[in-house]
Amino acid sequence: MTIHAALLMVAAACVMLVGTFAPQAAGLWLALERRRAGLKVLRADVAGFAMPYLEGGRGDTIVLIHGFGGDKDNFTRIARHLSAHFHVVIPDLPGFGDASREPDARYDIASQVARLHTFTRALGLGRIHLCGNSMGGFIAAQYAATYAASIRSLWLLDAAGFEGAFETPAIRRYAETGETVLLVRSRRGFDELMSTVMHRRAWVPPAVLHALADRGIRDRPLHERIFGEIGSGSPTLEVVAAAISAPTLIVWGRNDRILNPNVAAHMLASIAGSELSLLEDTGHLPMVERPRRVAADFLRFVAARGA
Predict the structure, then answer these.
(1) Is residue 72 within 8 Å of residue 78, measured between CB atoms?
(2) Tell me, what's the pLDDT at 24?
(3) What per-residue confidence (pLDDT) applies to 22?
(4) Topology of the domain comprising 42-305
């Protein structure tokens, strides 16, 4: 048995704890997952926000943007399959993950795009491959339309932004009642969220789930405001799709219950030269549910397009 395998076994035992030491156990597990992916944690200070990020690998840079309520570790598992081919950079967006929160700031799509641009400039990243999931896909697409010359390729994973994407029971419930599974009130509610966003739920240690649930509960007041800003303060991607010139791979899980997968065909028609991959037995987080397959599809896409 290798030292790394032994450490994983110890971590697996530790993260079964859900009491006093759960946060520490969760941190240990995440640290080992990052190490397995060849990632280290760094930090940038951007426009008054602290933005921790994961970095590893070599080659052209790919920046991966998480969705609403998510964080940089949403991409840790798929990063294992990318870091041999790319210099991988995965930030926490302001207001999420371990990034700082400013109660008086705006977190609409345009504001996050501006912060992301400042972040990439601060790191001197130059032309990048850009990927986003859900809200992160909305941000990535808006970024690609705004800063077209800096994008090698665009990779959209169950991306928000096109109007029809919000035609799902989860979003209709929010419009009718102000409640949505995406805004966490309790650990039970977080468990419901995990079952909703994934068709085939990936195993996550109980200690990690509890730590993430507790963070979501603390963040609910801010995230409720952010959710409203995304829905009402940002133009849909129909307005800017024609300005996206980078080779674009659109990926959607057919079993997505958060955003409507039927909108993928509309995205394909709206973004010139784009390609669509619809994944069976996959929900809202394809990079978590099927990391090897999703990474392989992107590597093939980039090679075929010469991006």
Answers:
(1) no
(2) 78
(3) 60
(4) Rossmann fold (3.40.50)
Q: Say what the pLDDT of residue 9 is.
A: 44
Report the catalytic residues. Answer: 66, 134
Cα 12 to its chain centre, rounded Å, is: 24
Tokens of 213: 């649930």
Return the bridge partners of 248, or none. Answer: 154
Give the CA distances from residue 13 to residues 10, 29, 48, 83, 206, in Å, rounded to whole numbers and listed in that order. 5, 10, 39, 28, 11
Rounded Cα–Cα distance for residues 201 and 221 (Å): 27
- Separation CA 194–CA 171 (nearest Å): 16
- Tokens coding 296: 């392989």
The pLDDT confidence band at residue 50, using thresholds 50, 70 and 90, is: very high
Indicate the length of the chain as a whole number. 307
Asked if residue 299 lies in contact with residue 83, where contact means CB atoms within 8 angstroms, the answer is: no
Specify the pTM.
0.91
Domain extents in the chain: 42-305
Residue 217 vs residues 163, 181, 228: alpha-carbon distances, Å? 28, 12, 17
Look at residues 135, 161, 165 and name the one whose alpha carbon lies nearest to residue 240.
161
Structure tokens that stand for 233 in this block: 């303060």
